[in-house]
Design brief:
The protein has about 240 residues and is mostly beta strands. It has one domain (about 1-240): Porin, CATH 2.40.160.40. Helix content is about 10%, strand content about 60%. A twelve-stranded antiparallel barrel has the order 1-2-3-4-5-6-7-8-9-10-11-12.
């Protein structure tokens, strides 16, 4: 009888773990994308909260960005998403929250995990500011990743370009390494910056999975004067 109960418990746990993995985007990082797309026919809502502090000695002056993303798995390799964006400017004497525009993006995953030396994914994004006098912006990312046992490494090469003026482009990057401590918890280190503007930031990141939902929390500390002293981002994913 005990063996029967143990077998039943094992089956239930495996089913729960499999269903969570199949349904969620389950990001390990907050700025770096990994080799994954939403499964075909599934939806997920993601809520972002990002705090940017330019000078840590004047931390009461900061910007908080709020994004709401809705993504859908068009195929098992291609997903689409739309973002609505707001931002709050916190100053010494006042706070000001305003609509900040929207983004539309697509991700396409090549091959299957482990087929190539580095697993490749392409990310394309269109950004429209709420101020129609500002130019349209396009963003392209080449995402390369690899799982080695419990360790994941991911690198994003990013090109951000003004779509209305030739030559106005910026090369950026995001990169991370994480370790899967358990099926529900990962810990890692992440870096982001700009090659064009000589910006670089580094900080820790943790991600949790609870049921079908997940959460990632990370920080990035600026390593030079051109970079914000501190950036903190929280993402919560709710698949349905």
């Amino acid at each position: 009888m005990k063996k029967t109960y143990l077998l039943l418990l094992t089956v239930i746990l495996n089913t729960v773990i499999f269903s969570v993995s199949a349904y969620a985007d389950n990001r390990s990082y907050v700025w770096t994308y990994e080799y994954m797309t939403m499964p075909k026919g599934l939806w997920e809502a993601e809520v972002y909260a990002t705090t940017e502090i330019k000078d840590i000695n004047r931390s009461n002056i900061n910007t908080v960005k709020h994004w709401l993303e809705l993504e859908y798995g068009l195929t098992d390799r291609l997903d689409l998403a739309v973002y609505q964006m707001w931002k709050t400017g916190n100053k010494i004497s006042e706070n000001d929250t305003e609509y900040d525009g929207f983004k539309v993006r697509a991700r396409y995953r090549f091959g299957e995990k482990g087929k190539f030396l580095l697993d490749p994914l392409v990310y394309l994004e269109y950004i429209r500011n709420d101020d129609l006098h500002k130019p349209n912006v396009g963003e392209a990312k080449l995402i390369l990743a690899r799982d080695i046992g419990r360790v994941n490494i991911s690198y994003n090469q990013i090109l951000k370009a003004n779509l209305e003026s030739e030559g106005l482009a910026e090369w950026e990057y995001a990169a991370g390494g994480s370790y899967k401590i358990s099926e529900t918890f990962r810990f890692g280190l992440e870096s982001k910056g700009s090659y064009t503007k000589d910006k670089i930031a580094v900080g820790p990141v943790v991600s949790f999975r609870f049921g079908k939902n997940w959460m990632a929390l990370g920080s990035a500390f600026g390593l030079n004067e051109r970079t914000d002293d501190l950036q903190v981002r929280l993402i919560v994913g709710i698949p349905f």
